[in-house]
């Protein structure tokens, strides 16, 4: 099974950006660990990060044709603003799990709304890097 993990704006700053909220592991650390877990579970995990909305949309659209069978998406701040990213997820029809390291529902009010959640199979928030692993396991088990 091929799983694509897409990380949005500012996730490249993991490990240094507000470690009291996001932890001290870098994005490379988190993704490398997820790739190892994927191998153990029989899945190929690929990942992509961009600070640019259009690049994220282009990569997700390309996933339709590259054998990707599931998507883990941490859209960062675009969660709360991007109708275009929401429409992309809806349009590609890939099972998608939305992941956030912090609990967006316990933070500032503007973070409580997700444009992605209504078109995702599920949402995992507030569990740190473990959220990615749980999303991976859910997709492998066939969550749609």
Automatic annotation (TrEMBL):
<feature type="binding site">
    <location>
        <position position="74"/>
    </location>
    <ligand>
        <name>substrate</name>
    </ligand>
</feature>
<dbReference type="GO" id="GO:0008652">
    <property type="term" value="P:amino acid biosynthetic process"/>
</dbReference>
<dbReference type="Pfam" id="PF01220">
    <property type="entry name" value="DHquinase_II"/>
</dbReference>
<dbReference type="InterPro" id="IPR018509">
    <property type="entry name" value="DHquinase_II_CS"/>
</dbReference>
<dbReference type="InterPro" id="IPR036441">
    <property type="entry name" value="DHquinase_II_sf"/>
</dbReference>
<feature type="binding site">
    <location>
        <begin position="101"/>
        <end position="102"/>
    </location>
    <ligand>
        <name>substrate</name>
    </ligand>
</feature>
<comment type="pathway">
    <text>Metabolic intermediate biosynthesis; chorismate biosynthesis; chorismate from D-erythrose 4-phosphate and phosphoenolpyruvate: step 3/7.</text>
</comment>
<dbReference type="GO" id="GO:0009423">
    <property type="term" value="P:chorismate biosynthetic process"/>
</dbReference>
<keyword id="KW-0028">Amino-acid biosynthesis</keyword>
<dbReference type="GO" id="GO:0003855">
    <property type="term" value="F:3-dehydroquinate dehydratase activity"/>
</dbReference>
<feature type="site" description="Transition state stabilizer">
    <location>
        <position position="17"/>
    </location>
</feature>
<dbReference type="GO" id="GO:0019631">
    <property type="term" value="P:quinate catabolic process"/>
</dbReference>
<protein>
    <recommendedName>
        <fullName>3-dehydroquinate dehydratase</fullName>
        <ecNumber>4.2.1.10</ecNumber>
    </recommendedName>
</protein>
<feature type="binding site">
    <location>
        <position position="87"/>
    </location>
    <ligand>
        <name>substrate</name>
    </ligand>
</feature>
<feature type="binding site">
    <location>
        <position position="80"/>
    </location>
    <ligand>
        <name>substrate</name>
    </ligand>
</feature>
<comment type="function">
    <text>Catalyzes a trans-dehydration via an enolate intermediate.</text>
</comment>
<keyword id="KW-0456">Lyase</keyword>
<dbReference type="InterPro" id="IPR001874">
    <property type="entry name" value="DHquinase_II"/>
</dbReference>
<dbReference type="GO" id="GO:0009073">
    <property type="term" value="P:aromatic amino acid family biosynthetic process"/>
</dbReference>
<keyword id="KW-0057">Aromatic amino acid biosynthesis</keyword>
<feature type="binding site">
    <location>
        <position position="111"/>
    </location>
    <ligand>
        <name>substrate</name>
    </ligand>
</feature>
<feature type="active site" description="Proton acceptor">
    <location>
        <position position="22"/>
    </location>
</feature>
<feature type="active site" description="Proton donor">
    <location>
        <position position="100"/>
    </location>
</feature>
<comment type="subunit">
    <text>Homododecamer.</text>
</comment>
<comment type="similarity">
    <text>Belongs to the type-II 3-dehydroquinase family.</text>
</comment>
